[in-house]
């Protein structure tokens, strides 16, 4: 199978011009084979991501629960906590409503048991993630060839951070899936509009440029509705193609404005209905996060963090392979997109790994290009042990540096916060929990979406204050735990259970014993003390002595 660039007419960089290779030589598959191949890829991805979802048992980011499942639970069952972002109209109901529908179906089928309530949302997200894997495969085949697509899929499935994050119910996870799917349709439109490209010859009859572009715009609009910052990605993609368009006015007036207006109108009406007032979420979101730097309240990083720490940690040992693929493939449009997204997000003070998750699959696609080049070298030198061992060693290196890390981060790291809520959920359904107090930084655990029982619970509030320098309850507790608990809550016996970090237990131990609390040992929670790069989260749950 030949591993080569398309002709310049197909969008290759200068210097690669030449006669277009035949489908057989370029590694492209005939239409009948493509259909079968795509089905096999989807089946593999569905099975893999389902197992992926079942293996993710740890806590990563509060938004997974508090900005999605907690809201969905409130919509479906009438109780659940809405954080301050929802009271200010900074979030759209579009994403949580997907999981609210799932909750409703589970309730109608009487399947809303503690275990199912925990796992069902991630299993649903695993279906979305599987389609993201499929579209990365198709996108890689569109841009390069089938061999690169196979190795890109390998990179996507093996990468530790993708395994750790993509099946979580974060809006960034769904944004990533939509971004990859949207890019596939967008570049299909570009390729099919070029009469000399291979893609045009294969798909011009069944897939017109205009329809593919409309699908891409619809997906882009939905992505921006879920995460307004997704506009950063699509601004780059759109402008890059817009500059070269001949019918610019037609594109803007007949494609961009109608599709964007319809999606904006539908999501706005949906939010008006759910909020009960006229709220324009994208505007509020951008005003708070972009113009007022409201996200800085949750911490800031140096401007180069994404380039020097954040993204390298996500792509991990795939980084040198991706860099090789970027240089050798000379697909500057996509490598430029990665740099653009990392650069724009670097301007903002508040930075998180998940913010740049949508461009991780693109980097892994370049890693697939590098591995495909090694595979091609192996095929040309079947008797050369050096080239054969290079590919094998690379695969072994990637597997042993990513798979153990995937399993550790998904099964053990910060698992206590998930386990304690699952424990309380089972206890509550057996009638042994009356009320719960969480003495830890706010949003450290899941909440009603996991408990799935309507009983009083109290956590330490961390709503940003309009007065700078004012400490929230979480900060006040961490500053002086014993004095804060005694002054704010007084008689702790009004709570049947108290959940707190082990590090804070010693500060309030006498209060707990004085109020007749006993420590509850949670079966299955791993306890590991001592300095380490990764420290397992350990929770103590205290129950009122009976």
From TrEMBL:
Annotated localization: Endoplasmic reticulum membrane
Keywords: Endoplasmic reticulum, Glycosyltransferase, Membrane, Transferase, Transmembrane, Transmembrane helix
Main location: endoplasmic reticulum
UniProt entry tagged with the keyword Membrane: yes
GO cellular component, one term: endoplasmic reticulum membrane
Sequence segments annotated as region (Disordered): 1-30
An example molecular function term from Gene Ontology annotations: glycosyltransferase activity
EC number: 2.4.1.-
Membrane topology: Multi-pass membrane protein
This protein's record includes keyword Transferase: yes
Extent of Low complexity compositional bias: 9-19
Pfam families, per database record: Glyco_transf_22
Entry-linked InterPro entries: GPI_mannosylTrfase
Transmembrane portions of the chain: 93-111, 148-170, 215-239, 251-275, 303-325, 332-349, 355-372, 393-412
Family, as annotated: Belongs to the glycosyltransferase 22 family.
PANTHER family reported in the protein's UniProt record: GLYCOSYLTRANSFERASE, GPI MANNOSYLTRANSFERASE 3
Protein name: Mannosyltransferase
């Amino acid at each position: 199978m030949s591993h080569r660039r398309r002709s310049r007419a197909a969008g290759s960089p200068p210097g690669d011009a030449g006669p277009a290779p035949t489908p057989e030589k370029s590694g492209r598959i005939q239409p009948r084979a493509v259909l079968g191949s795509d089905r096999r890829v989807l089946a593999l991805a569905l099975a893999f991501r389902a197992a992926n979802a079942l293996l993710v048992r740890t806590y990563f980011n509060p938004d997974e629960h508090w900005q999605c499942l907690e809201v969905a639970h409130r919509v479906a069952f009438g109780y659940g906590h809405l954080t301050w972002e929802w009271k200010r109209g900074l979030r759209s109901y579009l994403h949580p409503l997907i999981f609210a529908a799932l909750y409703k179906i589970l309730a109608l089928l009487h399947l809303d048991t503690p275990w199912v309530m925990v796992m069902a949302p991630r299993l649903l997200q695993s279906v979305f993630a599987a389609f993201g894997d499929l579209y990365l495969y198709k996108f890689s085949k569109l841009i390069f060839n089938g061999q690169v697509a196979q190795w890109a899929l390998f990179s996507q499935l093996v990468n530790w951070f993708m395994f750790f994050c993509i099946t979580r119910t974060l809006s960034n996870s769904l944004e990533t899936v939509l971004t990859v799917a949207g890019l596939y349709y967008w570049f299909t439109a570009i390729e099919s509009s070029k009469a000399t490209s291979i893609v045009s010859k294969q798909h011009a009859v069944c897939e017109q440029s205009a329809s593919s572009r409309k699908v891409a715009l619809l997906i882009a609009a939905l992505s921006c509705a879920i995460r307004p910052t997704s506009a950063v990605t699509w601004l780059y993609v759109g402008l890059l193609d817009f500059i070269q368009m001949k019918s610019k006015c037609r594109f803007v007036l007949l494609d961009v404005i109608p599709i964007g207006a319809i999606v904006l109108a539908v999501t706005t009406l949906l939010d008006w209905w759910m909020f009960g007032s006229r709220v324009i979420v994208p505007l509020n979101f951008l005003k708070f996060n972009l113009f007022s730097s409201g996200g800085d309240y949750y911490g800031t990083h140096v401007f180069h963090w994404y380039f020097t720490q954040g993204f390298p940690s996500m792509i991990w040992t795939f980084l040198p392979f991706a860099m090789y693929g970027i240089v050798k493939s000379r697909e500057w449009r996509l490598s430029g997109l990665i740099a653009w997204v990392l650069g724009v997000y670097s301007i903002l003070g508040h930075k998180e790994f998940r913010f740049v998750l949508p461009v991780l699959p693109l980097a892994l696609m370049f890693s697939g290009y590098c591995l495909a080049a090694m595979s091609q070298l192996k095929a040309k030198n079947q008797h050369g042990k050096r080239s054969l061992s290079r590919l094998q060693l690379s695969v072994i290196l990637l597997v042993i540096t990513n798979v153990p890390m995937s399993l550790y981060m998904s099964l053990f790291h910060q698992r206590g916060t998930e386990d304690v809520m699952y424990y309380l959920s089972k206890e509550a359904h057996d009638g042994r929990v009356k009320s719960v107090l969480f003495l830890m930084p706010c949003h450290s655990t899941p909440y009603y979406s996991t408990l799935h029982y309507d009983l009083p619970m109290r956590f330490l509030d961390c709503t940003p204050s309009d007065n700078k320098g004012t400490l929230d309850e979480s900060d006040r507790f961490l500053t002086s735990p014993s004095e804060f608990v005694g002054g704010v809550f007084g008689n702790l016996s009004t709570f049947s259970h108290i959940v707190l970090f082990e590090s804070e237990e010693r500060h309030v131990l006498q209060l707990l014993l004085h109020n007749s609390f006993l420590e509850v040992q949670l079966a299955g929670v791993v306890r590991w003390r001592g300095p380490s790069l990764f420290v397992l989260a350990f929770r103590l749950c205290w129950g009122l002595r009976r």
